[in-house]
Amino acid sequence: MDSVKNIINFVFPYDGIYEVILGSNGVKPNLAPIGIIKDGNTLKSKVYKDTLTFSNLIKYQKCSLNIITDSRVFFEAFFNELKIEDYIDNIPIIPVGVVFLANCYYEKLENPTYFFYDLIDYKKYGEFYHAFNRGNSMLIDLLIHVSRLDIYSKEDIEKYLPIIKYEIDIIRKTMPNDIKIIEKIKELMLQKGLKI
After folding, report:
1. What is the chain's Cα-based Rg?
2. Whole-number pLDDT of residue 2
3. Scanning 94, 133, 165, 172, which has its CA 20 to 30 A from the CA of 186?
4. Do 70 and 118 reside in the same domain of the chain?
5. Domain membership flag for residue 196
6. Among 124, 155, 170, where does a domain finish?
7. How far apart are alpha carbons 184 and 25 in whole angstroms?
8. What is the pTM of this model?
9. End of a domain among 93, 124, 155?
10. Tell me, what's the pLDDT at 1?
11. What SUPFAM superfamilies does UniProt report for this protein, alphabetically (predicted)?
């Protein structure tokens, strides 16, 4: 497994939304959580104006996609608590797992603006693993709620139905290749007289 394309397809195995830490520079070095949308061979993300990530990518159209599975690192990045100590080509990185280096471009300035990523290289700092997909975590939580429908009181079911609906919506959005899973869960709920 050595070509960039093979590694991209391993790390982002199917269409959907993956959470990574994006490293950017230009105005100021920054490491920030971002959702990467994989659609076929295209990788892109929505970046909002008035963010440091947006300003950086406009000024210097190179970045790093840091594949992290430790949720604490996402927390630290969200609160700007990560110490930025490592760089490749003036781009901040987190030397764990796999770091992709990318050229970034946009087609139209909007709010949000879609930035597209042309992955040109990678650095391996540990094992290869799939990028974090929050739909996977939602699916586990959804299965827990659905498994308890027979033991929940009517009041508890009413309380959890909006949560179940939300989780189904997130799974559908972030894991479109697994729509059959959602249909099977919805069918089970219909059999129990519950409509979502």
Report:
1. 19
2. 60
3. 133
4. yes
5. no
6. 124
7. 45
8. 0.88
9. 124
10. 47
11. FMN-binding split barrel
Same domain, 170 and 89: no
Residues 29 and 114 in one domain: yes
Whether the predicted pLDDT of 57 surpasses 80: yes
**Cα 123 to chain center, whole Å?**
20
Phi, psi torsion values for 106, nearest 5 degrees: -135, 160
C-alpha angle 14-61-65 in degrees, rounded to nearest 5: 35
Residue 82 in this model has a pLDDT that exceeds 50: yes
**Domain assignment of residue 139, given as a range:** 134-191
Report the SS3 class of residue 97.
Answer: coil
Tell me the pLDDT tens digit for each residue of 97-141: 899 999 999 999 999 999 999 999 999 998 888 999 989 889 999
138-161, pLDDT tens digit by residue? 999 999 999 998 898 889 889 999
Pair 147, 100 in one domain:
no
Identify whether 129 is part of a domain.
no
Same domain, 98 and 39: yes
Burial classification of residue 51, based on how many CB atoms lie within 10 Å of its CB (0-12 exposed, 13-18 middle, 19 or more buried): middle
Assess contact for 104 and 116: CB atoms under 8 A.
yes
Q: Pull the structure tokens for residue 140.
A: 């586990």
Domain count of the chain? 2
Burial of 153-173, coded b for 16+ CB within 10 Å and e otherwise, reads: eeeebeebbeebeebbebbbe
